[in-house]
Design goal:
This protein is mainly beta and 69 residues long. The protein has one helix at residues 41-47, and strands spanning 9-13, 25-30, 35-40, 49-53, 62-64.
Length: 69
């Protein structure tokens, strides 16, 4: 996700149904910036992922979670 404007932007990204791994905790890693965040899957599915980005900033996330059976 990215902010192509010349001003800061913020919002919530709602993942499509069934897109997230079936895990309680999710790890969102941005390999380009070396950042890593942990979020609860249930909250992310319900409320989305809050993102705040400055002008021209971006995140390139991979999403991981331990699969629950």
């Amino acid at each position: 996700m990215g902010n192509l404007s010349d001003q800061g932007a913020q919002g919530r990204v709602i993942p499509p149904s069934g897109w997230l791994p079936r895990a309680r905790a999710l790890w969102l890693s941005d390999p380009l910036k070396g950042e890593r965040f942990q979020r609860e899957r249930a909250k992310t599915e319900t409320h989305g992922l809050y993102v705040g980005l400055g002008p021209g900033e971006f995140h390139f996330f991979t999403v991981e979670g331990r699969i629950e059976r």
